[in-house]
Amino acid sequence: MRLLKNIRSLLGNYQLKSGIFHYHRGEFQQAISYLTKALDPIGKTEETDRNLAVHYLTQTHISAAEHFEEEGTLVKAMAEYLEAIRLQPGYPDLYFRLGILQSKAGEHLEAIERFKKAIEIHPDYLEARTSLGFSLLKAGKRKEALEHFEEVNRLSIAAISGPFEKGKGCLAKKRDLEAAEFMKEAFQRQPHNFSYHYRLGLQFLKSEKLEEAIQHLQQALLFNSSYADVYNYLGVALAETGSPAAGILEFRRALERNPEYIVARLNLAFLLAGEGEDNDAMAELKSVLAREPGNRAAAQKMNEIQDRQASLPRVGSKVGEGSDANR
């Protein structure tokens, strides 16, 4: 669940809603069918719905790939990742995942190209550089492998020393909570463990096992606190378990890492409105609509807040004040 339930209920596109429904049920073929229809024809689907359809269609292909990988049918898994890449070619993790499968299948030259593409998009992608080094070794390209392992070494040191120095600075200023966060980033950042907990968190969230989802997403953040998506998913899980204040905090953390993250901003706006923080909610909704003027859910929530505010008595007014009958 990338969006809060009360936002998903406002989606106007039947194909999109049906696709999301089947995605959460793990019914990949049905989800792909509906979500593909939500994208066609171009020009007749609102931008917001289109963006969501692309997101959920990509996630469906990823889930299908993971399913086939668990079954051991690598060819089908690779085909699903290729479909996901076609939808979102700028997503480096897709190339990395595909490269891992191609390496398992003995396609080392193909894997090398996938890892290189992931690094081209995200130069500091430590896991991709590490895997690239091993694939180059298997292909007999020792000099190039050494160059990438030297870069892995540099990135690994930087990943520890940067937050460590910041943590030391916070300790010197007696800012213990901030120091703890930097020290976690320095010494508990283990990418492979992050991936494990992140994937499990999403699986539990999709099946609405929210407590388990929260545990794994929180654990993922201990290993890597830089991904806005993780905070957004955690915010959704917390909000759906009846912890709106905690959800608001996580959505704000997501936006600190990516101010252009419209989904997190929309989730935040709806939670703020639910907590009666109308002014803050309106500010977030205006920001959403400035980026996506056709966002139906944001427009509807804004109208709802404006109607509610208009119905409230003005401060200092008396009952009946201002009506023609009392003039």
Structural class: mainly alpha
Radius of gyration: 23 Å
Q: DSSP helix count?
A: 17
Written as H for each helix and E for each strand, in order along the chain, the element string is HHHHHHHHHHHHHHHHH
CA distance, first residue to last residue: 54 Å
Q: How many domains make up the 3D coordinates? A: 2
Uncertain residue ranges? 319-327
- Classified by CATH, the class of the largest domain is Mainly Alpha
**Beta-strand residue fraction:** under 5%
CATH architecture of the largest domain: Alpha Horseshoe
Q: Biggest β-sheet: count, sense, barrel?
A: none
Key terms for this structure?
327 residues; Serine Threonine Protein Phosphatase 5, Tetratricopeptide repeat; mainly alpha; disordered C terminus; 17 helices
Write the SSE topology.
Elements: H1 5-8, H2 14-24, H3 28-38, H4 47-71, H5 74-87, H6 92-104, H7 108-121, H8 126-138, H9 142-172, H10 176-187, H11 191-206, H12 210-223, H13 228-240, H14 244-257, H15 262-274, H16 278-291, H17 296-311
